[in-house]
Amino acid sequence: MRPLDDTGVAKRQESGLPLMDISSPGFRQEPAAAEVVETPGPGGCWQCPSSPCGSRAQQEAEKKAPCPGLGLFYTLLSAFLFSVGSLFVKKVQDIHAVEISAFRCVFQMLIIIPCLIYRKTGFIGPKGQRIYLLLRGVLGSNAMILLYYAYQLTSLADATVISFSCPVFTSIIACIFLKEKYSPWDALFTAFTITGVILIVRPPFLFGSEVAETDKDYSVHVKGALVALAHAVFAAVTLVILRKIGTSVDYMLSIWYYVIIGLIECVIVLSILGEWRLPHCGVDRLFLILIGMFGLGGQMFLAKALQIEKAGPVALMKTMDVVFAFIFQIIFFNDMPSWWTVGGSLCVIASSTGAAIRKWCHSTK
Prior knowledge:
Layout: H1 6-14, H2 54-64, H3 70-91, H4 97-119, H5 130-153, H6 156-163, H7 166-177, H8 184-201, H9 204-207, H10 210-214, H11 218-245, H12 251-273, H13 282-308, H14 311-317, H15 320-333, H16 339-363
């Protein structure tokens, strides 16, 4: 039925036909027998069956539009959850890092499977995205194992800070493969991040050999630093792959690939190393469960953030892990940072804050 114009309204008033408010919930207009009943298409209404209602389409578009800065907030929450999980990893010292990763994968799998069944997303994913999901699982699980191993080799703060050279690799890789713009602001924030990492780690080739002499086991520290750096590379590629996948794949499915491939990889490595052992202490068992819980929460919020935000700003905001790591190190390990560490932390905070403010200002224009 065609919408009535002003003339049609006047004619219906003169003929005594009552006018009803078509916006009222109980209104239903019956088509006349001589008229052909038209079925409205998707997004259409009975007043304009051939095209979507403009106001309704506009409302749906506004509802789907993400809140400015929401992706950065998700990243901040993810950073906090990951930091708490890393604290528990540091507390568990009698279990190999690969076995800790396996326990985390098992726990997350028990939660992910019901979620996938409920959301009816399947376990394989879209045909065109499976290769990216597979790469995400392999690289993401390797990054997890390397980070846990770095936590066991060096201090919590050092491992966390070194791993956050990740934004440097992420921005470059995203610029190359995703054609994302690498602006001067991105270069500035990256420079702040690198400066903060250098000030906190204080490598001997820049700060002198006395740094190595004050460390009781500097070779182990170097090994942990290299492992953390390898984690940064794998994590950067994972972030870019998640950004490439975007919203075409449910974020739960992305975590599913990460969990199942990580578990298979951990079982193979543990079988080769012969490092299978169950924790004897009940507190360690509790820590393993909490590692799985906080790791799952961090993965969920990180995946959601990367669906609505570019990979570079997400990686920069994720450097808030550094701040949380130093806070936890002071509180739980009674390890006070030096002034160099404080200066480096301020650089990292300035980088993350600058990225968030720039994103907010750009979204409000």
